[in-house]
Design a protein that fits this description.
- There is one protein chain.
- This protein is α+β, with helices and mostly antiparallel strands.
- Helices cover 31% and strands 14% of the residues.
- Strands 2-6-5-4-7-10-9-8 form an eight-stranded mixed sheet.
- Helix 3 (40-47) crosses helix 4 (51-59).
- The radius of gyration is 28 Å and the shape is globular.
- Mean pLDDT is 87; it is low at 88-123, 125-152 and 728-732.
Length: 732
């Protein structure tokens, strides 16, 4: 074949491919993605390409090539079926209402149009009617940046009234449902079984799935104390019920549900109850209840949300649901559920010859079956360790110990001459540590004397005691001489230099190489089936955090000085949205913590399996990798800062670092030049991985509390925020 014929054959093949996998116009591609609430990063992750490539496809600058073209065509075809283009009259409108806007109150009926009433802070109750109608501001509409107008995203008609409702009873004894966007619906149900039926048949509550193969989020009902009384439930649990986490099986409401052929999950009727009937095909019949007065909303993460009036509580939970996920339990549970929602374990196969499909493994997910960890990754008491002597304590050579920093040192004489201690805190540090991280998807493989590969996730037994922090690489060919005595080791949570072989996650070993030192692993448990499983999870939580902070007046494009000013008192600008920020942060840490959930009572004994081990998302290796990378990211910035400024941290606690300085602001010691930070060092800003001001105290305060508790290495980072120190932690 001649060169010309070869070229023409290649072109003909492309033309044939284009016919087989037709794509909509570029603008329609973008509309479909946005209608589904997907980011370009999520699409890129699913298609294993770059975000820029997806942007080019939507702009019409380039076209996807096989085999990605077929997958992209399949995605768009599925989205087009779910989100058809607007008709001639148009069913999308412009909306400037985001969660910061005061939601309009709406009365729902077939004949009455929605109307605007006072803000929810006043909590007036509109007259409720018997049938819900569509709202003028639909829940799920794309959030607008304050002061800007954006096109609303098409709303799934099945969930026209949003993801959740707060059920309350007014002084007129009528039951109403406060939905997101200020919508209020009449609730005709006289019992809990009837309330479940109403929710599934009439309420139009729920949330579309976040991933093609996933499942729609079940509707969430939040029951106030008045609603609990109305439906025959206690407003508080007895001490026995609280410890059990549920009502007794003989409770009358549980009997009502059983008579109506509704079932409860194994956790029973507790603060987060799930009421369901077994699924028929793809049809689900499930409603989740949240009961704040039973401590469903942990005040450590949800602040005062449980005490809010119904409309305001609907706003808080609705903002969280629309930006993160409809809550499915604690923030930790929701964080874990978000991982699964973005990477469902299975998907439908391509059609068979007869048009039928079957369930198959979804690439990039953790699958539907749990996998055992490597022995070094297993926490104490795991069945894999059942043969160990009863009181055996595993050392670094037997146990992977990747945890966040808890390190402090005495101040030097020079630091004692300075006036202040300034704490800086890394925003969403563990989320940033998850971004772009390659983690194992399947079971580990044991390898003897492996060659270290920084791109291969796993656990490595290696001696890093030879890494000398007094001389390290801080660039490709740049070495720096440092005072190692003023730095924590990057290889241990307590900052102590290792004294022999120990188990480390891949990011920790890779950092030793980055610092300029050779490594020679003795053995390893590596995972050849791997991927960037947490990318979409990070992106959704990042977007939720940034959008909410922007609503609170803290934008991503502020100068350092403006950022510090914007952060000052940001929580008071909108206390409800400040609760959402807190819950988003807790979702990150809690979700990662759930990857290594420990036994929770239930009569467990060491060596026996516990409930969490049955989950495919019980993955201590992934948790260890994220923590390892987060700690290494922080140490890298500390080293860059020390090499450039000669300044060393006084204390580190997780993602908070304390420095001695002559001024009270981070700008008094962070090396900004012409508004630009030190490359690779600390940078002020709201984005995950950047830093904010945690707090400032005087050096005299620091020396005083250490003397008071007779603890020269008391971790001052623990108390730098407000200066309050108690004997709850004496530094030992």
């Amino acid at each position: 074949m001649s060169d010309e014929e070869e070229l023409f054959s290649a072109v003909d093949a492309l033309l044939e491919q284009a016919v087989r996998d037709p794509l909509p116009e570029p603008a329609e591609r973008k509309r479909l993605r946005e209608a589904a609430g997907l980011t370009q990063d999520q699409v890129a992750g699913a298609l294993q390409t770059r975000r820029e490539a997806v942007g080019n496809w939507e702009a019409g600058r380039t076209e996807p090539r096989p085999p990605k073209r077929a997958a992209y065509a399949r995605l768009l075809e599925g989205l087009a079926a779910r989100f058809p283009a607007p008709g001639p009259a148009g069913n999308t409108s412009t909306a400037s209402a985001g969660p910061t806007a005061t939601p309009a109150r709406e009365t729902a009926s077939r004949t009455t149009a929605p109307h605007t009433a006072p803000a929810p802070a006043a909590a007036p109750r509109p007259a409720a009617t018997s049938r819900p109608a569509s709202a003028s501001r639909r829940p799920g509409a794309k959030t607008a940046t304050p002061g800007k107008t954006t096109a609303a995203v098409a709303v799934d008609p099945r969930f026209a009234h949003g993801p959740l409702a707060v059920i309350d009873v007014g002084t007129d004894r009528k039951v109403v449902a406060y939905c997101t966007g200020g919508l209020v619906l009449d609730v005709p149900a006289k019992s809990i079984p009837a309330l479940v039926d109403w929710t599934l048949q009439e309420a139009k509550l729920g949330q579309p799935k976040l991933s093609g193969p996933g499942k729609d989020a079940d509707p969430l009902l939040v029951l106030t104390e008045s609603a609990l009384e109305r439906y025959g439930l206690p407003t508080t649990l007895t001490e026995e019920e609280r410890l059990a986490g549920r009502l007794p099986e003989g409770h009358k409401v549980i009997k009502q549900l059983a008579r109506a052929e509704w079932k409860l999950t194994k956790r029973g009727f507790g603060p987060w109850a799930r009421i369901y009937r077994p699924a028929k095909g793809s049809e689900r019949a499930c409603v989740q209840l949240c009961i704040p007065s039973w401590h469903a909303l942990d005040s450590r993460h949800w602040g005062t949300a449980a005490q809010l009036p119904p409309a305001e509580l609907a706003r808080v939970l609705g903002a969280y649901a629309s930006r993160v996920l409809t809550p499915r339990g604690s923030t930790a549970v929701t964080g874990l559920e978000l991982m699964t929602a973005l990477h469902p374990p299975t998907r439908a196969s391509a059609p068979h010859a007869d048009g039928t499909r079957h369930s198959e493994h979804n690439p990039g997910s953790l699958g539907k079956d749990p996998v055992d960890p490597a022995p070094c990754e297993a926490p104490d008491g795991h069945p894999l360790l059942a043969d160990l002597p009863r009181f055996h304590i595993r050392g670094p050579g037997e146990k992977l110990l990747e945890e966040a920093y808890d390190w402090a040192r005495p101040m030097t004489d020079a630091e004692c001459t300075l006036r202040h201690l300034v704490g800086i805190d890394v925003n969403m540090a563990f989320a940033a540590g998850a971004n772009g991280l390659i983690v194992g998807l399947g079971a580990p493989t044991h390898v003897k004397a492996p060659v270290f590969d920084p791109k291969l996730p796993g656990s490595w037994l290696v001696d890093l005691s030879h890494v000398d922090l007094s001389r390290v690489k801080v660039g490709k060919d740049t070495w720096a001489d440092l005072d190692a005595g003023l730095l924590p080791s990057p290889f241990t949570p307590k900052g102590e230099r290792p004294d022999g072989p120990a188990w480390y996650a891949t990011p920790t070993v890779a950092y030793a190489v980055e610092l300029g030192y050779d490594v020679a692993p003795i053995e390893a448990y590596v995972r050849y089936d791997n991927g960037r499983y947490l990318d979409a999870w990070y992106q959704r939580l990042r977007d939720a955090y940034l959008a909410t902070m922007a609503d609170l007046g803290v934008g991503a494009d502020l100068t350092p000085a403006d950022f510090l000013a914007a952060m000052d008192g940001y929580q008071e600008r909108d206390p409800q949205l400040a609760i959402v920020v807190s819950a988003i942060k807790a979702t990150v840490k809690g979700g990662l913590g759930k990857l290594r959930e420990r036994p929770r009572g239930e009569g467990w004994r060491p060596g026996e399996p516990w409930r969490a081990l049955a989950r495919p998302t019980w993955r201590p290796d992934i948790r260890a990798a994220v923590i390892s990378r987060t700690r290494i990211n922080l140490h890298r910035k500390i080293v860059k800062h020390a090499a450039f400024t000669g300044q060393y941290p006084v204390a580190i606690l997780s993602d908070c670092v304390v420095y001695a300085a002559n001024g009270e602001s981070p700008l008094d010691f962070l090396p900004y030049r012409d508004g630009k930070p030190l490359p690779g060092g600390f940078k002020l800003g709201v984005n995950p991985g950047l830093v904010k001001h945690e707090g400032t105290q005087t050096v005299l305060w620091g020396e005083g509390v250490r003397e008071q508790f007779n603890a020269p290495e008391l971790n001052l980072a623990r108390y730098i925020k407000d200066g309050t120190v108690t004997d709850a932690d004496n530094g030992e």
